[in-house]
Write a structure and sequence with these properties.
This protein is α+β, with helices and mostly antiparallel strands. The protein folds into three domains: 169 residues, no CATH class; 82 residues; 131 residues, Histidine kinase-like ATPase, C-terminal domain (Heat Shock Protein 90, 2-Layer Sandwich). Helices cover 63% and strands 10% of the residues. The chain has a five-stranded mixed β-sheet. A hairpin with a 3-residue loop joins strand 2 and strand 3. Helix 8 crosses helix 11.
Length: 391
Amino acid sequence: MATAVLSSLVIAGTAATDAPGPALLVGLVPALLLVGASAWLPGVRTTEAHLVRALVTGALSAEEVAEAATARTRLRTALWLVLHLLLGFLACLATMVGLTQAAVLAATALAPDPRMLLEGFLNPFGPGPLTPAQRIAAPFAGAAVLLAVVYAMAALGALMSSLAPLLLGPSAAERLAAAQQRAETLAERNRLARELHDSIGHALSAVSLQAGTAARVIDTDPAFARSALEAIAEQARTATAELDHVLGLLREERPTTAPQRDLSHLEALLEATRAIGARVTARVEGDPAAVPGVVSRETYRICQEGLTNVLRHAGPVPVDLHLRAGPDSLEVEIANPLPDPPSGRARGARSGGRGLGGMRERLRLLGGTLQAGAEDGQWRLRAAVSWKDAP
């Protein structure tokens, strides 16, 4: 609207005099200053970005354009608004003058007195009467003017499209901050996924095995079936507590009880695994209580996932767990016999899935290593982490 009014004023000034008056041109300066100052108003930047996406194809990507948070971003927005006004002014001026000139030239061939028709407009044929050849050429000149206007508008659109990402798009610092935020969000999601897989997955595997065992022996060994049902209830309570904790994190709440199990809970984990039917032999060397807290918690989760994998893929078989806690390092080894020959399910299960991937991710964050595979007729899982060089 502002550009159309300014263009009309310039055209009116051109019709009244041979050139726009200096006062009219100077009047553009306050208008440009006012438009630039509007960049400090809330919502202007995002509104301009939505308009550009709607009117200029491919000018801005789908990434979110945030409100201007720094003076540099506001200055870029102000420069965009000023250029938007100036280029819009030129587009309106070129459209009104160019289309009118093209129409006049096209009508010259039919006018009784072409000189009167061309009076006040650009006359490409010079003073004096038009020759028959000039009257024939006039419509072609009008078509050329029309084509020039079309190409000029396309050039202005391309210029706006190239300037929009520079002036309205996010800066390098804003892109870096957004990328860091996305990385933190993905890391938190992966952490929660590991927590769910290791804790809830272990509980569900134990419940499934205990329920199946209880169903088979409920008639022949009611006492064992009753014990299995009690273990199922305990596993369900544990899973509920873990799930409440994770859901609290997802809702950004501060849980009242956050189950942070570490190596001090290892014996309870072994007893729960033995209650399912697995014959677990555990050897602990060193003092697990001296292990740093984060290493202790992650090692507990690795032991939990390792025992869960044994129950899930091999059933209640003999399991050897060896934990060595040194002054600045810790090693865990879990071994169980492999079926001979291994079944298709076991072969596929041992190829590495979410459980092994989660354990590798836990150890990678701690600077540790994980080895898992068949060895001498047994499936062995070895995890090692050292905090000697940790800051």
